[in-house]
Specification:
By secondary structure, the chain is of the alpha/beta class. The protein has one domain (about 15-260): 3-Layer(aba) Sandwich (Rossmann fold). The protein contains eight helices and six strands, in the order βααββαβααβαβαα. It has helices at about 25-30, 35-45, 120-130, 140-145, 150-170, 190-210, 220-225, 245-260; strands at about 15-25, 60-65, 110, 135-140, 175, 215-220. The longest helix is centred in the last third of the chain and has 20 residues, at about 190-210.
Length: about 270
């Protein structure tokens, strides 16, 4: 049932649990030994006492859903990565809460090297299967960097992703992250301008795509993540987040969750 009304195969979540499907690329999946921003967001929910399952608790607990659980394993690594390979069995930093990993709390739909256009055909089935309340779309850099697509191309892919998510569940909520900058790459001076053009258009288009039943919200990760053309102190390699970057990206999501949806006592504080 692509309308999201059939719950025979997927149990309905407790009323006070928010199910989130995070759809992304390497910035979201993370590499072996990383904490990931997904974990920092998960911690924020727990620190705001969203883990109670009592029926009178008004604040939701976070349940990540999706087909994968792990990071990119070090045996694969980004240098010998085939984008068709689903390398998702890597572990996290040893300090992560066991309830997150290996305890099953780390589910996601993020794969190293994935462009947005490659996810379009798969998203409907993922949403239909897991019935998330919220889909996070954190994609786009690879469309520009590896496929040399234009801002309009990525915008079209995002619109299709919104449509496909709604085929899986008609009342699904969506967060779309803007595209963060990276350190300037010689020979690819086009990327910063394309990124800025896309982000400006996305801020307008999300209002057109949003409906009362299925709202679409932009998350301006680029305003919190301290990674830019000139310098990237929050990045491990000029693009992917380091430990600080994980906190900053998670903060961008918590700002929206708190300021627009009244979750938590305040946005995540970056240490």
């Amino acid at each position: 049932d692509v309308t999201g009304t059939n719950t025979n195969t997927v149990p309905a979540p407790p009323q006070n649990t928010i199910k989130i499907l995070v759809c992304g690329d390497s910035i979201t999946q993370g590499a072996e030994g990383d904490f990931t921003w997904r974990y920092r967001l998960w911690e924020w929910f727990r620190s705001n006492q969203f883990t109670s399952l009592s029926i009178d608790h008004l604040s939701p607990a976070l349940e990540y859903v999706g087909p994968y659980n792990g990071t990119l394993p070090s045996s694969i690594g980004p240098t010998n990565l085939d984008t068709a390979t689903l390398a998702t069995w890597g572990t996290y930093a040893p300090q992560v809460d066991p309830a997150f990993s290996p305890g099953g709390g780390s589910s996601h739909f993020a794969v190293y090297g994935r462009p947005a256009w490659l996810v379009v055909d798969a998203l409907q089935q993922q949403v239909a299967t897991y019935q998330p309340d919220l889909v996070i779309l954190h994609l786009g850099f690879n469309d520009f960097a590896w496929w040399t697509l234009h801002a309009n191309d990525l915008l079209e892919s995002m619109q299709k992703l919104v449509f496909m998510a709604r085929l899986g569940r008609r009342d699904v909520k969506l967060f779309i992250a803007d595209v963060s900058h990276r350190l300037l790459v010689l020979g690819r001076e086009d990327i910063p301008g394309t990124t800025d053009e896309y982000n400006a258009m996305l801020a307008i288009k999300v209002r057109e795509w949003s409906t009362p039943e299925s709202p679409v919200t932009i998350v301006k990760v680029s305003e919190d993540y301290d990674c830019h053309v000139e310098a990237c102190p929050a990045g491990a390699d000029g693009l992917h987040p380091n430990a600080l970057g994980d906190f900053q990206i998670a903060r961008a999501y918590t700002r929206v969750l708190h300021e627009q949806f009244l979750f938590g006592t305040g946005p995540l504080e970056v240490p």
